[in-house]
């Protein structure tokens, strides 16, 4: 997954190919720089790509997401099926907002399934994974909105949007989670030059939300039916919901015609996981697309993805396609929500897993502390000492209280003579003498639930 | 630890300070770009820093290591003591060598202890950690070489190296693990203009290796004694070894006067973990520093670090120092060694943790497969299906053999009627009927040791 490694591997392979004397490839395809790789994949978001120049003068960029590098990796290594997750940093020249977990350098966590498979089976698995992650993380209630690029395009066509305006109108529809329908409509008509009639027809469709029955209803819709693309998308949504029923996740998944993720590379199903509990996270709380949403308002997207069947082919010299579907989990945003929850709760969050501090009550016992520390470390106990020759007992105990270390093993002249250690429970201040031989087991017993 | 975040935080704070109306700080210190942060910290290695320009025209660089960003983080957040590990990518414009795990973009794993503590206690803990990591990873035999920047500087002084040549002569000494003493001597004399006499005196010292007793002997050495710096370093080495004895790691630690790590920021103890088993890893196998090493030859450094007491102060507006000691683990190099060991052994390395594949023997059972898959997933079993409506049983079994999945849960019309699943052990081809209710426990039982 490393951009520079891949670059170098590619350069080597191409050099080798040139030496060997070439093959019969008609279309010469030399992927020289990372900048070229990223160009033309992100639509209007391209302005957020960080460019950089290396000292050798090659034009380079910092990776914008993990999807495009993944697609390139598949093409360059001729991988036709794979399932993997990947956690790594990406970079965007966006306006950062620390409190909402929006940074310029941030981690993404991606899961993708690549390969030629039967319709909607891997897609359903991706949604099941988003469902399970958001459930496990205990972030409050959530919904997973689902739509399909083909349904959007078909809808634009039957509503009278000119072909060359699909992408830009799609970008405007994408703003429905941040601004009310009236403003979206205005942008379409005033800024993007769409007819009022077309905008109003779009407005009717994008207010629709539902499940499998909505897909069935739209398949009967006189106007929608005129688009073959839309029909194909709607049939797949139906099939998807049948698999989601088997995966027992339909209670959280909503077919939502207003969902229109911005990136150019999606070709089929698209989806977005949003938290619906107000107050869990700061963020936009405007009403969604003009109509009051079925549930509480959306407070922020924490996962998103879709199907991108054409991306790998763009990096393959012969244009061979590898269909892909995947999801990005917004871990920074999730972290900031979890942090805020932790701060709001009375419970103190520990930043260390140390089970026991090895302390001394008198002076000149550093060596004895280090000896006991070694015994504990070698037995797999998480232990620490203060890095002082003669720390005060009080400051050792205070350190434990501050950092939530539950136990203190206290050594003194008497304890050393008796072959015992005084084990102190920080919370209750209870102290018991434990024989040196039994200490490891006693610490394990007392910290096993921690 | 995120450079861009820190930049932004710093910019905000400085802007706020300007608004408030300034303070009495005499020395105005504005750290604007990452490039300035990295400049002047790495000595001759600075040429390996990747520079980059962002679209706004600010001069930026990719981080070269995790130590300098850590030091800046401490200074900017006024943290005076902390202990942390950090795994992240760094970038170097070096000549890559894939087989030896040398890349331009690679992961480092750092552990550092910052704070004003008593001498050598945190330093000894760092060495204990390197010892435990290298032991646990089962990389073959290893040594941890230890030296001290003050001993090197003192040695250079008493051998007659002019003050302004300490750093450049030190860089040459650092090459002793890659080239024989004769070549090192030649570089000192011919390229760096050192007198032959001084070079020969250095040659005598840098051939010395030992433990605490060597430090004691050198403390008695007439010439070495003339340097206060060297004496301070030697006393600390003695103290260090006394703690290492308590930590039970002296069998692997060698006080080696030829160790001279290149980076400018070290101020005290320095160390390097090297694998000593020939053939474990490809790499330099030249004899070390002219004299045959006590053990087998070194085959590559996999960990390194030292004390850097001045680095945090360089980022603090008031120059307040925070003493630090730390270590970097060369995880890419370790990975390439482990990969080569895995390839050389007959044992197949699994790339997936899947415990069971849910398969079907007949057609039209996709829904039944997905239903069983959901049962298994919800019970925490790692399971998968092939993403096909009607996959052939043979191809499902082949997939298990190829990817090392140990069990197959096979559904057929008969099994569904009987309320059972045919559980097949891939290795032995044994098949047993298991009741649906008992399946989860049976899979757990059969894969618990895996």
What's the structural blueprint in terms of helices and strands?
Two copies of one chain form a homodimer.
Chain A: H1 3-20, H2 34-38, E1 51-53, E2 59-61, H3 67-76, E3 82-91, E4 105-114, H4 121-136, E5 142-148, H5 149-158, H6 166-173, H7 181-191, H8 196-205, E6 209-210, H9 212-219, H10 228-246, E7 253-256, E8 269-275, E9 301-307, H11 311-315, E10 324-329, H12 331-344, E11 356-360, H13 366-378, E12 383-384, H14 393-403, E13 407-411, H15 413-418, E14 420-425, E15 431-435, H16 439-447
Parallel strand pairs in A: 5-7, 11-12, 11-13
Antiparallel strand pairs in A: 1-2, 3-4, 4-10, 5-8, 6-7, 8-9, 9-10, 13-14, 14-15
EC number (chains A, B): 6.1.1.21
Protein name (chains A, B): histidine--tRNA ligase
GO molecular function (chains A, B): ATP binding; histidine-tRNA ligase activity; identical protein binding; RNA binding
Beta-strand share of residues of chain A? 15-25%
Described by strand count, sense and barrel closure, the largest sheet of chain A is: 8 strands, mixed
The structural domain count of chain A equals 2
User: How many DSSP helices of chain A?
Assistant: 16
The parts of chain A where pLDDT drops under 50 for at least 5 residues are 1-7, 10-33, 280-298
CATH H level, superfamily name of the largest domain in chain A? Bira Bifunctional Protein, Domain 2
How would you sum up the global shape of chain A? elongated
GO molecular function, one term (chains A, B): ATP binding
Catalytic activity (chains A, B): tRNA(His) + L-histidine + ATP = L-histidyl-tRNA(His) + AMP + diphosphate + H(+)
EC number (chains A, B): 6.1.1.21
Pfam family, one (chains A, B): tRNA-synt_His
